[in-house]
Here is the input.
Amino acid sequence: MKDRFKTLITFLDPKSNIAESYRVLRTNLQFSSVDKKLKTIVVTSAAPGEGKTTNVCNMAVTFAQAGNKVLLIDGDLRKPRIHRVFHETTEKGLTLAITNLVNYKSNIVHSEISNLDLMLSGPIPPNPAELLASNNFKALLEILEKTYDYILIDSPPVSPFTDAVVMSTICDGVILVISSGMVDKDVIIYSTNLFKTVKANIIGVLLNNLDVKSRSNYNYYYYNYLYRYYYDNDDSINKKSKRKQKRAAKKKRKKTYTYGQRGSLDDELRKKEFMEFLNTKEDEESK
Amino acid sequence: MKYVDIHTHILYNSDDGSESIEQSLEILTIAKKHHVNSICFTPHCFINNPPDMQEVIAKTNILKEKINNNINSNINNNINLFYGCEIMIEDTLPSFIKKNEEMCLGEGNYVLIELPMFNYPIYIKEVLYQTRLKGFIPIIAHPERNSHIQLETTKHIKDIIVNGYIQINAGSLTGRHGELAKKTALKLVKRNLVSFVASDSHNDKGYSHMDEAYNIYRELKGKEKTDQVFFYNPYKALKGEYIEQVEINYIKKKQKA
Here is the structure.
């Protein structure tokens, strides 16, 4: 259960800040191509552990929440993980569907989320790259494209394995997930060149794990501030405004005190000094 | 503590196990003393020379009747009996099993597969994948007794873990099969790679190791996991239910200073 609570944020807390940014990603994807509609999208990364699976699952959920019919395929036939997120078994899945095209429907699982269907990995083959390069996989995708609006495919990392490059030649586009500060620049350039050699369509880069606090980026700060201002509960806003009112009042008080009082103080002091001076003179004269 | 035993050679006159009905009944009474809830008979099977399954089914039925009718014996509250086969690995295994489905363990679709002692079959990955595609789930019997796996455990275990489950012997946990077997068995247990423990018993001595192995396992992993490995997982396998697959936890080697 732990795994699930971690990963599926868009399902568990759809009003959260993070889910909102996934929605931004969705609109960006929908309007990124003008001529051809993007249907099959492969999600990869340069190195392992950059956040492919979490991003794919959450993207699929957000696409489904918008009313599209979505199929999420676990194309990572080396270390499949999507079945752990959705708590399913890997008895049926992609490899069985590829080897037996007629019964492909029995290998699709309906998830709890409406409009979202899953195709898990199935038994793990000794030769994943050849299986994904086969004509059967191409035919399977062509059949699935007719019934679904979007097909999202998870995949193993690019730099050690060639699976994602093979799949990108068949699919409409590729998204590279990059974890900030984790991978060397040269590795990313190398992996993008791999896609360029097969003339795959790289839609864009998803920057993951960005530490917002350490970077004093004005835009991010402003976005967070506005988000809170718009979405948070009324009480918290009132508290904030009260605090700000107090601070403003303090500032005002200080200002008024300093400006008004200083002049008057000076005058009184002068008067006092003058009076004292006069008194002393009078005293001296009287003596 | 209760046991479900999925790997025995107790069935009389079928392999190198027990030799007569009296001996196998005797072993069953001993098994009941050691709190064995249900037993699966798994005689050896070579693909060139398979046992007659009709005969195996008939023998298990005879034993069932004998146990139920025998009021005076200690096993009158009955042990559940199942049958299956322990199949020696070969590259034609997937198609062979598709023809003989009654060789699966109990009522499910799990298959017990044996590795040779002093060889490592290079086609094991392909065979396990193909059996999975045919709709059966492989269990590898006592991999800790294979000499190649004893020397290079993680390298070879990766091939098995991907599509299959691991069953180790109670005897190798206690040291009956030698020091190296014990060492590798403990290594597998510590890394949570084991899904079943069974007594590979050929005679009446097999079950005395079961209690000892239970205590060893319990000291290492706690009560919940031991009960799962000794009772719940084997029960699920006999009924054909899904068992959670294990994953390799890589242990980093300490760098030499």
About this structure: Residues 235-287 of chain A form one domain. The interface with chain B takes residues 89-91, 95-96, 99, 122-126 of chain A (CB under 8 Å). Chain A has twelve helices and seven strands. The first helix of chain A runs from residue 2 to 7.
